[in-house]
Design brief:
single chain; 144 residues; alpha+beta; four-stranded mixed sheet; 4 strands
């Protein structure tokens, strides 16, 4: 199943409720922060579904369990040709939307999608925000 297919078959509200349960609930955020996150994830959800189709041969979204609880999940970029796993930092959403999801973690598809959305929004809730952070990070690494 690809990321696009998973998005299409999973109702947004169920996904956000899972994101809330996994990442926000224990931190006791104010309701305004939760509403803000809900709106941001809703926009990301729609943006992803509106992306043009793009073939992603030899690359997969790799979901691995790294602990005993469902929060201990790693979302990575799998390059099958190089047989390497890379960080998902700064990967373009248009590059991953039609990637197959390869899941070794024992979690539901709903939790899988929640973890993917959490990971791809780590640096921001839009491609522009993420690209800006990528440039800032590259500039900072070049200064050293």
């Amino acid at each position: 199943m690809t990321l696009r297919e998973l998005l299409k078959e999973t109702p947004y509200k169920s996904v956000f409720n899972t994101i809330y349960k996994l990442f926000y609930q224990e931190k006791k955020y104010l309701n305004s922060k939760i509403i803000e996150a809900d709106l941001a994830y809703s926009k990301v959800y729609e943006t992803l579904l509106d992306l043009p189709e793009k073939e992603a041969e030899n690359h997969k979204i790799y979901i691995a369990g790294i602990g005993s609880i469902s929060e201990d999940v790693d979302v990575c970029f799998l390059d099958e040709i190089e047989d390497e796993i890379y960080s998902f930092d700064f990967v373009s959403w248009s590059d991953i939307i039609d990637m197959e999801i390869f899941k070794t973690a024992k979690i539901s598809d709903l939790e899988c999608l929640a973890h993917i959305l959490w990971e791809i929004t780590f640096w921001g809730f839009s491609q522009e925000e993420i690209e800006k952070q990528k440039q800032t990070t590259l500039e900072a690494s070049n200064e050293e």
